[in-house]
Design a protein that fits this description.
about 65% helix; about 0% strand; mainly alpha; about 140 residues
Length: about 140
Amino acid sequence: MTKYNQTFKQQVVDFYFQHEESLSLTCRTFTVSKRTLRRWIAQYQHSGINGLAVLHTKRTYTPEFKYHVIQTIQNRDMTADQACLQFGIANSGAISQWLKSFQQCGIEGLHPKPKGRPAMKKHAMQKCHRHRKQKKNAYA
C-alpha cells in the first residue's frame, strides 16, 4: 500500500497553489518533505491530476527502454527527475540504479538479474535421495 493516496496529494498541491505557492508552509502543514512536494507539483504541472495517480502495479521495463532513457539523459543533460516526468517513471531512484548499472557493466547491466534460489543439479538430487534411503534403512 502506498503512503499517500491521490486525494491527499491533490489536497497538498491545491493548498500549495492557494497559498501563494509557499513551499515551506505547505510542507509544515501536511508534514511532507520539500523534495516530495516538488515532485508532486512537477507531476501535476506536467500531467494534471492524472500525474498524481497512484500506480498499483509494479512496472517492469525492458533493457531497451532503460537504455533509451539513459541515452536521453546523457544526450540532453537531463536530471533523473526530469526523465521521470518525460517517460512516466514513478521513481527517479530506479533511473539512478539504471545509470549506475550501465556505468559498471554496460548494456548487460540493464538486463534483469535471475531471482530465487538456483535449481539443484540432478547429480546432487540423486545423491541426496540415496542418502535419505540409507538413513531410512539404517533406522528401520
